[in-house]
């Protein structure tokens, strides 16, 4: 029997902990890149024109708080299920073995990449777009505060797969925060507004298929492609990658700015 009071206490703790951690990181990135680095890091900026204002940041913070609350519900539900022995999570690495631990962790990352891609494409359907995903696209010149700025329905759907995963997939307990941290880091990089990876990345096997800040930034300005968030895999496979991605990634805004 799930104890109601412990659920609510856990929920408040999870929400406060996740929100403080998230906004500490996001504010730090914003101060470094968008304030301190506004001129100093100009050559790494992706968009030529700066369009972020206090109104946009306020909108992003409000929506991020709701999405963080949804994330806290998911985290609390998982911890309650785990405490009552209803998950397949184990802290015992030996009982699973490292090959299985690596396989399930990589599998979770690959699954979350596919889950995001297909839902994201669906949310861009002309009949659906304005009801849910338009919230995220209010941010055109994306910045760290845009990372979790979604409609609550989108926040709930994007994170929903993790609950059945912990119930049915035999999983090493630390894999769960690991996947969450990789997901958050990837999301923050995607919305940084600055490209720090070198142009030669596109010549490195395997790494060239990873998502970059430019890749997702172009999605916010063009809307009709680059739907993946962790890799270019699904966009390449299904022909939705924006044709100017590689040229934009290698050219850098400093070149495009001087060409204007
Ligand atoms: Zn989108
Ligand atoms: Zn985005």
Short description:
The protein has 260 residues and is mainly α.
Helix content: 55-70%
Radius of gyration: 19 Å
* Category by helix and strand content: mainly alpha
The unreliable regions are none
Total number of helical segments?
11
Approximate strand percentage: under 5%
Sequence of secondary-structure elements = HHEHHHHEHHHHH
Mean pLDDT: 94
**Spatial order of strands in the largest sheet:** 1-2
- Please report the distance between the alpha carbons of the first and last residues: 65 Å
What topology emerges from the helices and strands here?
Layout: H1 4-40, H2 54-83, E1 89-90, H3 93-96, H4 98-123, H5 152-160, H6 162-168, E2 171-172, H7 175-190, H8 213-222, H9 233-237, H10 245-251, H11 253-259
Helix pairs in contact: 1-2, 2-5, 2-6, 4-7
Bound molecules: zinc ion (ZN) (2 copies).
The site of one zinc ion has 6 residues, from loops.
Can you tell me about this structure?
The protein has helices spanning 4-40, 54-83, 93-96, 98-123, 152-160, 162-168, 175-190, 213-222, 233-237, 245-251, 253-259; strands at residues 89-90, 171-172. It is an all-alpha fold and 260 residues long. Strands 1-2 form a two-stranded parallel ribbon. Helix 2 packs parallel to helix 5 and helix 2 (54-83) packs parallel to helix 6 (162-168). It is globular and about 60 Å long. The model has no long low-confidence stretch (mean pLDDT 94). One zinc ion (ZN) is lined by residues 136, 142, 191, 216, 220.
């Amino acid at each position: 029997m799930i104890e109601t009071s412990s659920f609510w206490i856990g929920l408040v703790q999870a929400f406060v902990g996740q929100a403080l951690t998230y906004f500490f990181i996001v504010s730090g990135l914003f101060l470094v890149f968008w304030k301190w680095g506004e001129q100093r890091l100009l050559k790494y900026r992706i968009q030529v024109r700066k369009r972020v204002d206090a109104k946009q940041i306020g909108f992003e913070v409000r929506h991020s708080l709701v999405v963080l609350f949804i994330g806290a519900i998911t985290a609390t539900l998982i911890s309650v299920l785990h405490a009552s022995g209803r998950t397949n999570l184990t802290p015992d690495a030996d009982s699973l073995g490292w090959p299985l631990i690596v396989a399930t962790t990589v599998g979770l990352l690959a699954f979350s990449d596919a889950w995001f891609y297909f839902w994201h494409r669906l949310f861009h359907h002309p009949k659906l777009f304005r009801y849910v995903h338009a919230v995220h696209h209010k941010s055109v010149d994306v910045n760290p505060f845009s990372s979790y700025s979604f409609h609550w329905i989108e926040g709930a759907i994007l994170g929903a797969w993790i609950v059945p995963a912990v119930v049915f997939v035999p999983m090493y307990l630390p894999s769960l925060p690991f996947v969450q941290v990789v997901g958050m880091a990837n999301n923050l990089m995607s919305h940084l507004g600055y490209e720090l990876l070198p142009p030669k990345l596109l010549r490195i096997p395997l790494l060239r298929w990873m998502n970059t800040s430019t890749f997702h930034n172009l999605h916010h300005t063009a809307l009709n492609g680059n739907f993946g968030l962790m890799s270019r895999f699904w966009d390449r496979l299904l022909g939705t990658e924006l044709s100017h991605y590689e040229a934009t990634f290698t050219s850098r805004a400093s070149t495009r700015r001087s060409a204007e």
